[in-house]
């Protein structure tokens, strides 16, 4: 493709005596013109490529178009220039938000030092192609488990604060606020405005989601938009947004309000509402219904308690009507006589037991006295001890001069052994 540029005007060529960029040094730098010309010559050797993306800017100036295109899955962007001769051959209704395929060739404008791509052909991507890509992505995300019911978080019964992501001054914002406040007048919102279509939709929605998810006061997040055609809802099927919603700690409600060809956000959200109004009804209870429920529960509780009290009173009256409770004196008198007899028997048994124990104790005491060493001493016997308290049992152990202690019935005396007595001497008998 050949096009006219102001850079090609005579006199724009770099000075021939300028140092080439590859030979430049601190003492011999190259010129800006020589540097830009070198870049242009290098870029001019690149071939034409086909690129796919979304138009984010489309400005018409003097028949030429100065545009920008962004990648549909990231924030990468490029500048495009469509000269009037090419513009006449492409669809006239192309504009911001369109998904297109373009044949582009890199170009570097020497005078401004501006890098861009010159468009030689451009055509819109069919909606069917885009929906086919979304279906493939839907299958992939479902296979990863992002749409599984068991990973969806339950919504709180009555959220303290509702986080709302929607377009500024949009009907969706008004619908959510109005219907939620009608159901629960004291409901609180933290609203984050974001673009709901175009190139700003995904980054602004992601930023708003991150801020609300980090707020500990926010109990549920609603992403709302008042419907639209599938083309304008593509931002709510962006893979980055889908994965961010799946990773959010706060429950997320999708309220895009589009029944057919619903975006992927509906599948990954913890709850899908058909419209922003439906979202307001799903995230807060109706105060009138809750009051009616409380009144019903109070009535049922009162009825149950009344029935229980009436039943207990009837049982008490039935017990009181029995003869034994109506006139308990005969029963008490009969039982009193039985208690008196049992007490008398108990006293007799205890008395006999004490007497038997006393007699047995006297017998044991007499036996103990008979066997006691004291009784033996009382009959005239004595016990001789050597020094150290050892009882003398053998006369041979007390040689002449051995000191002895002799214990009698009453008291003890000191004695000295004169040796063993001969065998002819008879012991003293009692």
Automatic annotation (TrEMBL):
One of its GO terms (cellular component) is exodeoxyribonuclease VII complex. InterPro entries: Exonuc_VII_L (IPR003753), Exonuc_VII_lsu_C (IPR020579), OB-fold_nuc-bd_dom (IPR025824). It catalyses: Exonucleolytic cleavage in either 5'- to 3'- or 3'- to 5'-direction to yield nucleoside 5'-phosphates. HAMAP family: Exonuc_7_L. Residues 1-27 are annotated as: Disordered. This is Exodeoxyribonuclease 7 large subunit. Residues 146-364 form the Exonuclease VII large subunit C-terminal domain. Belongs to the XseA family. GO terms for molecular function: exodeoxyribonuclease VII activity; nucleic acid binding. Bidirectionally degrades single-stranded DNA into large acid-insoluble oligonucleotides, which are then degraded further into small acid-soluble oligonucleotides. Its main location: cytoplasm. Keywords: Cytoplasm, Exonuclease, Hydrolase, Nuclease. Residues 31-122 form the OB-fold nucleic acid binding domain. Heterooligomer composed of large and small subunits. It comes from the Bacteria. Its EC number is 3.1.11.6. It holds the Pfam family Exonuc_VII_L. CDD domains: ExoVII_LU_OBF.
């Amino acid at each position: 493709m050949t096009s006219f540029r102001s850079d090609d005007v005579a006199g724009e060529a770099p000075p021939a005596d300028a140092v080439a960029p590859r030979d430049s040094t601190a003492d011999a730098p190259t010129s800006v013109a020589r540097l830009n010309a070198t870049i242009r010559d290098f870029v001019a050797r690149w071939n034409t490529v086909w690129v796919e993306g979304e138009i984010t800017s489309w400005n018409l100036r003097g028949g030429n178009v100065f545009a920008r295109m962004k990648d549909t899955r990231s924030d990468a962007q490029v500048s495009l220039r469509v000269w009037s001769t090419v513009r006449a051959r492409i669809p006239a209704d192309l504009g911001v938000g369109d998904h297109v395929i373009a044949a582009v060739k890199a170009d570097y404008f020497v005078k401004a030092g501006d890098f861009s791509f010159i468009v030689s052909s451009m055509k819109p991507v069919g909606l069917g192609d885009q929906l086919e890509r979304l279906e493939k992505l839907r299958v992939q995300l479902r296979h990863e488990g992002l749409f599984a019911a068991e990973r969806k978080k339950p919504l709180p019964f009555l959220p303290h604060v509702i986080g709302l992501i929607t377009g500024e001054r949009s009907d969706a914002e008004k619908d959510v606020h109005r219907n939620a406040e009608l159901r629960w007048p004291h409901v609180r919102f933290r609203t984050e405005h974001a673009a709901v279509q175009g190139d700003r939709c995904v980054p602004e929605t992601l930023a708003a989601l991150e801020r609300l998810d980090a707020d500990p006061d926010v109990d549920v997040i609603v992403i709302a938009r008042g419907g639209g055609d599938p083309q304008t809802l593509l931002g709510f099927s962006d893979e980055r947004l889908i994965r961010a919603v799946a990773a959010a700690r706060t429950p997320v409600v999708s309220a895009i309000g589009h029944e057919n060809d619903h975006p992927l956000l509906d599948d990954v959200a913890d709850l899908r509402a058909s419209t922003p109004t439906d979202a307001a009804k799903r995230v807060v209870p109706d105060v009138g219904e809750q009051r009616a429920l409380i009144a019903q529960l109070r009535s049922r509780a009162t009825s149950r308690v009344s029935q229980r009290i009436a039943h207990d009173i009837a049982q008490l009256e039935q017990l009181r009507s029995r003869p034994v409770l109506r006139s308990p004196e005969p029963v008490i008198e009969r039982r009193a006589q039985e208690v008196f007899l049992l007490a008398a028997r108990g006293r007799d048994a205890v008395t006999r037991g004490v007497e038997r124990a006393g007699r047995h104790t006297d017998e044991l005491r007499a036996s103990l006295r008979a066997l006691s060493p004291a009784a033996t001493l009382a009959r005239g016997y004595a016990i001789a001890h050597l020094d150290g308290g050892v009882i003398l049992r053998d006369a041979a152990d007390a040689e002449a001069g051995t000191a002895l202690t002799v214990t009698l019935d009453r008291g003890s005396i000191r004695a000295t052994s004169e040796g063993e007595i001969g065998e002819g001497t008879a012991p003293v008998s009692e």
